[in-house]
Amino acid sequence: MHATTDQKLGPVLLAPGYTRWNARTYLFSAFITIGMLAFIAFIQPYLLNANLKVPADQQGRVLGLLGVSNEIISLLLVAPFGALSDKVGRRPVYALGFLWLAAGFFLYPLATTIPQLLGCALFFSVGVAAVGCMLATVLADIPAERSRGLFVGITGFCQGLGATLAVLVLGRVPQKLAAGGLDPMTAGRITLGVAAGLCILTAILCWLGLKPGRPGGEAERMPLRQVLATGLAAARTNPRIWFAYMLQFVSFADRIIIGTYFSARLQQTAIAHGQTVAQATAAATKPYVIANSAGLLCAIFFGIALDRMNRVTAGAVAMFVAGVGYIAGGFVGDPTSEWITLVAVLLGMGQICAILASQTVLGQEAPAEVRGAVFGLAGIFASLGILFTSSVGGWLYDVVDQGAPFFLIGGVNMIVMLFGLYLLRARPTL
Q: For a disulfide at 5, which of 16, 88, 161, 306, Cβ 3.0-4.6 Å?
């Protein structure tokens, strides 16, 4: 197929050399990428209960260790995978990443000790770094400049839908298999095997559908030291960039609470109420899906609102909504009660609004000549949010109370909200 310079996917104008088939393949890959990353975070408590029999008062720290390990490996490998894709092309790196994830899904249920599980997580993280890097890199390649915002929005919707459906569908498979007479370990292995099969399928589609060859006109990658210096200098000049960095930190910290500790708390409570591990995992899918669905619906309306209101105001509102949700979640003694639905809605809305607000503020406030460094440092703040919540949140979950991580992140959300209100008072115009 010979690509033209004016191909479109619906209303999206594609960059020269890219076809509708390339764009469709990427959107499906984005759907699976975030779906698989959301699912592995959701299913880890199941493995701790069914395979390793980890006591409930130790699971928070184990989950935190897995989260920290994953993020450190991803941070270390994202830049090398990006450089590799500049040399050999996006297609082989993306396909290799999915094959690596598939191997990780096969290995995970074989772990019978915490060190073995950590080894599986570290192995899996290599694939996470590859697909995560390509998710962002190919997103920058495909759309023409005038359609970039629209394509980013479509991609974000596909990602959110992937996370929702992966947990909703795959999260219920162990219960279905257990109802058929399989033991929890076997049910878990088959479920993760299904996830591995989806990754293999996506790897094949990436190879067939993404644009082959090396990308042209690649910009020189900025060293980390320069990213830090330039990004911090921009924030010192414009405190609204600081606000966007803080939104990135908090929104990705929120993601760990929703994807890991929220799910673990729901599963442990259901088990304490007499449900099997498989039944508890299935029950935990409902609040998770509600949170993600609320985020998807809210993203549509909030995206429109961002073009009509002060972006700092929007970020402060997002922090308030999420903060109320987390604090309420900390107070809910029984996370399986009907009140958890309202909490889930607030969490999903707050997280997606914070992400959209941070990206919008960054896009508007970052000077064109240093935009790459500003966005690069924003990504580092996002990783720091994940590391903070995984480590501190896991300890609080076990040692203090299962609701403690919710209070912690709720408080951080409120602090960022107050900083946004200060900016609005000191510099009311955007």
A: 16
